[in-house]
Design goal:
By secondary structure, this protein is of the alpha/beta class. It has one domain: Phosphatidylinositol (PI) phosphodiesterase (TIM Barrel), CATH 3.20.20. It is about 25% helix and about 15% strand. The protein is built from eight helices and nine strands. An eight-stranded parallel barrel has the order 1-2-4-5-6-7-8-9, surrounded by five helices. Strand 2 and strand 3 form a beta hairpin. Helix 1 packs parallel to helix 3, helix 3 runs parallel beside helix 4 and helix 4 crosses helix 5. The N and C termini lie far apart (about 35 Å). The C terminus is likely disordered.
C-alpha cells in the first residue's frame, strides 16, 4: 500500500506530552483505532496517539470505540456478542478505503507491542459503553498497559468515574499511573474530581472550553488537553489559555499553528 501520509515537522513541547496527539491514530488518513492508523501516525512524526480500549464478549481487550461494529467494519452486531475469532474475521479497513482491505481489529496486546516497537506515547481511553462492565475493563486492560509501557509514555483516561476509581485503586501511585479525567465540559466539581482521582490531566471538548476554566485548571497544576480539533486557525485562540496539547484526527494540520513554531500564525 502506498503511503500518502503528509510529512510534518512539529515543534517540541516543553511539557512531557507533545503539542499534538493523533486521535485514534492518524484517523484522517487511515481507519481509526487500527494498527495501520498508528503506523501512519508514526510515519508523519507523531510522538503520541490516543486510542480506545474495551472488551469483547469473551473478555479480550481490543482497540475499538463504538458499542457495535457496523460503522467501522464489513458487518454489524454488538462488540459484547463477539469472541476473538469472530472479531478477527471482520474487515475493519475497507469501510475507510480499499487501500486498507483486510485490516483486522487490533487486540490491546497487539497494539501495545506496536506502540512499544515504535517508541510512541499512548493516551489509552477506557471506553465504557452502555451496559458494559467498567471494573472488568480496568482489571483486564490496565495491568497490561502498565506492564507494557513506562509511566512517562502512558496516560489512561475515561469519562467513566467508576473506571477512574478502579484504576486509581489498582495503582495508587500517581507517578506510576497518570490518569486523565475526560469531560465534554468540565463540571463545577472538576477540581474535587481531579483531586479524588489524583489526576494528571483534564481532557475537554475544545468547543466547550472557556478561558476562565482553562486558566483555573492550569493554575491548579493540571495538564490540559483538548479534543478533537481539526481547524488550527479556529483553535489558535486556546493556546494562550495554557492548553498543553490538542488531540486531532490529523496533527499535520497544526504544523505551522503551534506554540514555538517558527511559522506560527495568529
Amino acid at each position: 500500500m502506498q503511503d500518502t501520509s503528509p510529512v510534518v515537522s512539529l515543534p517540541i513541547s516543553p511539557n512531557p506530552v507533545p503539542f499534538t496527539i493523533a486521535h485514534r491514530g492518524l484517523s484522517a488518513h487511515a481507519p481509526e483505532n487500527t494498527l495501520a492508523a498508528v503506523r501512519a501516525a508514526q510515519r508523519i512524526g507523531c510522538q503520541w496517539v490516543e486510542l480506545d480500549v474495551q472488551l469483547l464478549g469473551d473478555g479480550t481487550p481490543v482497540i475499538w470505540h463504538d458499542n457495535g461494529v457496523r460503522r467501522c467494519s464489513n458487518n454489524r452486531g454488538k462488540l459484547a456478542k463477539l469472541d476473538l475469532a469472530k472479531a478477527k474475521a471482520l474487515d475493519v479497513g475497507t469501510w475507510f478505503s480499499a487501500d486498507f482491505q483486510g485490516e483486522r481489529m487490533a487486540t490491546l496486546e497487539e497494539m501495545l507491542a506496536l506502540i512499544g516497537e515504535l517508541g510512541l506515547g499512548l493516551n489509552l481511553e477506557l471506553k465504557v459503553n452502555r451496559g458494559r462492565d467498567a471494573l472488568a475493563l480496568v482489571d483486564t486492560a490496565l495491568p497490561m498497559a502498565l506492564r507494557a509501557l513506562p509511566a512517562d509514555r502512558l496516560i489512561v483516561s475515561s469519562f467513566n468515574q467508576e473506571a477512574l476509581e478502579a484504576a486509581r485503586r489498582l495503582e495508587s501511585d500517581a507517578q506510576r499511573l497518570r490518569l486523565g479525567v475526560l469531560y465534554e465540559k468540565p463540571t463545577r466539581q472538576w477540581y474535587q474530581e481531579a483531586e479524588r482521582f489524583a489526576a494528571y490531566s483534564l481532557h475537554v471538548d475544545w468547543r466547550r472550553l472557556k478561558e476562565k476554566r482553562a486558566r483555573e485548571i492550569k493554575e491548579a497544576g493540571y495538564q490540559l488537553f483538548c479534543y478533537t480539533a481539526n481547524d488550527p486557525v479556529a483553535f489558535a485562540r486556546l493556546w494562550p489559555w495554557g492548553v498543553d496539547a490538542v488531540i486531532s484526527d490529523d496533527p499535520s494540520l497544526f504544523e505551522h499553528h503551534l506554540p514555538g513554531s517558527s511559522h506560527q500564525r495568529p
